[in-house]
Amino acid sequence: MGQRSFEWQERFCREQRPEPCRIVIFGASGDLAKRKLFPSLAALDARGLLAPTSRITGCARHPYTTDSFRRHLADCFPAPLPADGDIFFRRTGYMPLGYDCPDDYRQLAGELQRQGDGTPVIFYLALPSHLYPVVVNRLAAAGLLTETPSGGPRRVVFEKPFGHDPASAAALDAALRQHLGEHQIYRIDHYLGKETVQNIFLLRFANRIFEPIWNASQVDSIQITVAEQLGVEQRAGYFDQAGLLRDMFQNHMLEMLSLVTMECPYTFSADAVRDEKIKLIRSIRPIAFTDTVRAQYDGYTSEPGVAPDSRTETYAALKLYIDNWRWQGVPVYLRAGKKLGIRRTELDIIFKPVPHSVFPGIPQTALQPDILHLHVQPEEGIGLTLQAKKAGPKLCMGALTLNYDYRESGGESLDAYARLLLDCQLGDQTLFIRSDVIAAAWQLYQPLLDHWAADTATPIPRYPQRSDGPPEAHQLLARDDREWTDDLAVPL
Ligand code: BG6
């Protein structure tokens, strides 16, 4: 690397330190707060990415005191506490709060004022979405959402799911818009905080070699897989109502699909990136019902909290097409499921085969396609499967996969939530979802959700736990003379 480029990179890479801010976590006694949000804030603190005078206030209905809340939080850190764990706890307080109780919000306003005016305030709503309008109305009534030059910015972070269908998402949006501008609304999709998901953008737009082959003339098909070993765990109440399509496809998978297929934005800024995403999502052809598969793992209906006659899908696979110049005719296959044999999130770009085989005795159809693998988790890296000669006197061919582990590039990666909490402090919305993207995502999937809901007669295919998923998902590709790049069953 030239000296100039090196110096420039050094400047670009330096982590931007946020100014002091006041962070309020609603739902502070809940699982997400304990498992992800507080540990992420502590990790930011340990890296100097939480200003020393920033304050964190947990709010929930539970009658903790600040002391008992700190003890509750201490459980979420590996024992012994990190060396600076104490410092983090000292800046963390707790206030019991009824989500619809005006007096409690007045007290919160008093508390935030005591913490010092003029710095940004971030309200993180780790709550079920039906409480979003309630909390936002109360915050507004207490004057806590009003931005003034002397009071600092006010930002509100919303967890997914954002609505249940197009109508509820639009109603929710309208309710929030009464009190918040889009620049104040941070809709989270934690997949966008994952280093490797951000790397899709870098791979495509910080390198030149991929662009000429990133299109329908070179790419045969694209596959995106999100396989989980976990089942519904403690979240049956939510999941049994939602199902896998709402839980994974409408958000995480569509975000990854957008990153891998969208056009290059004119600059890396929140609106420029999100403008390209929305164009991409709007160009997806309505999904043919015959190109979809839903299934449920064996034993799902015996999980605590799941209806015994539930038809909720815990697995889905589908094929879609993007109607634009770049991707015309290239099928994109998506699959995601719970209780599969392995945990793997991966995007595969499968290239077209060579047009003709020059190798005597080896037909063109026997030559395997090149595949670019973008590994998101648990491996974090990039792989390229090519044809190569096997060692020996004969001309034997075999697949060779070059693998690169992103962790080798150095640097300590931030957990997805830490990354997003940092961006929120910095007021950077690039990795957050804009309302038009949410609306377009619902529009895309709602016809399928309606179709599945209306079809109560067709039995839902089952698949064994720890397996590769239902055979129907293989048939979806076999029909097109293709196959999934990976087997998701527990390796023997
Ligand atoms: C969440 C879904 O958004 O993502 C869960 O609601 C899913 O059902 C989870 O398990 C997967 O996230 P990760 O980071 O473990 O891949």
Task: Please explain how this structure is put together.
This protein has about 500 residues and is of the alpha/beta class. It has 2 domains: about 20-160, NAD(P)-binding Rossmann-like Domain (Rossmann fold); about 190-410 and about 435-480, Dihydrodipicolinate Reductase, domain 2. The chain contains 14 helices and 15 strands. The strands form 2 sheets. The chain has a 9-stranded mixed β-sheet with strand order 14-13-12-11-7-10-9-8-15, with helices on both faces. The chain has a 6-stranded parallel β-sheet with strand order 3-2-1-4-5-6. Strand 13 and strand 14 form a beta hairpin. It binds 6-O-phosphono-beta-D-glucopyranose. 6-O-phosphono-beta-D-glucopyranose binds near residues 228, 230 and 247.
